[in-house]
TrEMBL record:
Its cofactor is Zn(2+). It is found in: Cell junction; Cell membrane; Cytoplasmic vesicle lumen; Lysosome. It catalyses: 2'-deoxyadenosine + H2O + H(+) = 2'-deoxyinosine + NH4(+); adenosine + H2O + H(+) = inosine + NH4(+). Its main location: other. The keyword Manganese does not apply. GO terms for molecular function: adenosine deaminase activity; metal ion binding. It is a peripheral membrane protein. This is Adenosine deaminase. Its EC number is 3.5.4.4. It comes from Erpetoichthys calabaricus (Rope fish). The gene is ADA. GO terms for biological process: adenosine catabolic process; hypoxanthine salvage; inosine biosynthetic process; negative regulation of adenosine receptor signaling pathway; nucleotide metabolic process; purine ribonucleoside monophosphate biosynthetic process; T cell activation. Pfam families: A_deaminase. Keywords: Cell junction, Cell membrane, Cytoplasm, Cytoplasmic vesicle, Hydrolase, Lysosome, Membrane, Metal-binding, Nucleotide metabolism, Zinc.
Length: 364
C-alpha cells in the first residue's frame, strides 16, 4: 500500500507544527547537484530525476537500507560552510510553503562537519568544519529563514548511538547555543546499541538533565519496547522519536499515556523503513489516535522518502481515519510538547487557537 504524494489541495490547510525532521534528510536535490558541481565532486548522476532515484526509498525496505541512502549525497554537503547554512535556510522556506508555523529540525553536528562521512567511490574530499562551526552556521541559516518567511525555527542536536565519544561534546554545544536557537538533544541510530554498553550517552543526558536541556530519543522505531523504557527511565526523555513498538508492552504504554509522553510519529517514514506493518490501516498511530495519546505527525526525512508533510497528513486521513478535529488536536499537542520556552510556547498555542477558531479553555 503506497503513500499518495500527488500534488493536490492540502489535506489540512491550517497552521501546523513539525517536531521531527532531520536537516540532512531534507536537502533539495537541486542543492546537492549545485554543490557537487561547485566543489568538483563527481556524482554518478547529473540531474534531479536520477538523483531522486539514487537517494530515495520507493518501496518498503529496512532501516539499514534507508540509512545507506545518505552516503550518496552527504559528502557533497558535509564540511562546506555555504552548503550547511543554505540547507538550513531552505528547510525553513520549504516548511513555510507547507503551512508550518513552528519547526524543530535535528541534525548531528559531527556528521555535517564531515567527521564520520563514509568515503564513496566517486569522492574522497574532506571538509574543514568543526561541530561548533556547524551549529553556528545552521543557526544563521535558520534565523535568516525565520526573517524571510515569517515562521519560527529551532534545532535539536543529535548524538549518534554508534559514536558515544561525541555525545558529551553534543551536550556542551546544546549548552553553548541554547540562547541562539538550539532547544534540545536527541539520540539517533541503531537501537540495538544500548546505553549501558555506551555510557557516553548516559553521561551526556545526565548533564542535559542537570542543565535543563530538553531531551528526545529515537526509540521503539524498529527496536523493542525495552529501548523506549531505557529512553524514559535512564535518559529521562521528555519525548520519544517514533515509539511505535511501545504498544507491544501494554504496561509501559499505559504508563506513558498517564505521563502524557509525546510520540513524534512519521507515517510515511515508518512504511518505507519497514518499521511497521506495511498496511497503514494496521499502523500503531491508529492506536495512538483512539487512545487520545500525545503525538505529532512529521516527515522525518522528506528527501529520502521523496515526500512532504501534506503526504503524511493525506496518509493519516485516507488510511487512519483522521478528521479535521484530530489534526487540530495533534498540532496543539505538538505545540504543547515543543521545546520552546514557556512564553514562546504560549504565543505559539495562541496562534493555533486563533487559526482553529478555538477558545483556549476548550482546546485540549
Amino acid at each position: 500500500m503506497a503513500q499518495n504524494c500527488d500534488s493536490k489541495a492540502p489535506v489540512f490547510n491550517k497552521p501546523k507544527v513539525e517536531l521531527h525532521i532531520h536537516l540532512d534528510g531534507s536537502i533539495r536535490p537541486e542543492t546537492i547537484l549545485y554543490f557537487a558541481k561547485k566543489r568538483g565532486i563527481s556524482l554518478p548522476v547529473d540531474n534531479v530525476e536520477n538523483l531522486i532515484k539514487l537517494c530515495c526509498c520507493d518501496k518498503p525496505s529496512s532501516l539499514t537500507d534507508f540509512l545507506s541512502k545518505f552516503q550518496h549525497y552527504m559528502p557533497v554537503i558535509a564540511g562546506d560552510r555555504e552548503a550547511v547554512k543554505r540547507i538550513a535556510y531552505e528547510l525553513v522556506e520549504t516548511k513555510a510553503k507547507e503551512g508550518v508555523v513552528y519547526v524543530e529540525t535535528r541534525y548531528s553536528p559531527h556528521l555535517l562537519a564531515n567527521q564520520n562521512v563514509e568515503p564513496i567511490p566517486w569522492n574522497h574530499q574532506k571538509g574543514d568544519l568543526t561541530p561548533d562551526e556547524v551549529v553556528h552556521l545552521v543557526n544563521q541559516g535558520l534565523q535568516d529563514g525565520e526573517k524571510a518567511f515569517n515562521i519560527k525555527a529551532r534545532s535539536i542536536l543529535c548524538c549518534m548511538r554508534h559514536m558515544p565519544n561525541w555525545s558529551e561534546e553534543v551536550v556542551e554545544l546544546c549548552k553553548k547555543y541554547r540562547d541562539e536557537g538550539v532547544v534540545g538533544i536527541d539520540l539517533a541510530g541503531d537501537e540495538s546499541l544500548n546505553c549501558e554498553a555506551y555510557p557516553g550517552h548516559r553521561r551526556a543526558y545526565e548533564e542535559a538533565v542537570r542543565c535543563g536541556i530538553h531531551r528526545t530519543v529515537h526509540a521503539g522505531e524498529v527496536g523493542q519496547p525495552s529501548v523506549v523504557k531505557e529512553a524514559v527511565e535512564v535518559l529521562k526523555a521528555e519525548r520519544i522519536g517514533h515509539g511505535y513498538h511501545t504498544i507491544e508492552d501494554d504496561l509501559l504504554y499505559k504508563e506513558l499515556l498517564k505521563q502524557n509522553m509525546h510520540f513524534e510519529t512519521c507515517p510515511i517514514s515508518s512504511y518505507l523503513t519497514g518499521a511497521c506493518d506495511p498496511d497503514y490501516t494496521k499502523h500503531p498511530i491508529i492506536r495512538f489516535r483512539k487512545d487520545k495519546a500525545n503525538y505529532s505527525l512529521n516527515t522525518d526525512d522528506p528527501l529520502v522518502f521523496n515526500s512532504n508533510l501534506d503526504a503524511d497528513y493525506r496518509v493519516a486521513k485516507t488510511y487512519m481515519g483522521f478528521t479535521e478535529e484530530e489534526f487540530e488536536r495533534v498540532n496543539i499537542n505538538s505545540a504543547s510538547s515543543s521545546f520552546l520556552p514557556e512564553k514562546e510556547k504560549k504565543d505559539l498555542l495562541n496562534r493555533l487557537y486563533e487559526a482553529y477558531g478555538m477558545v483556549k479553555s476548550s482546546a485540549c
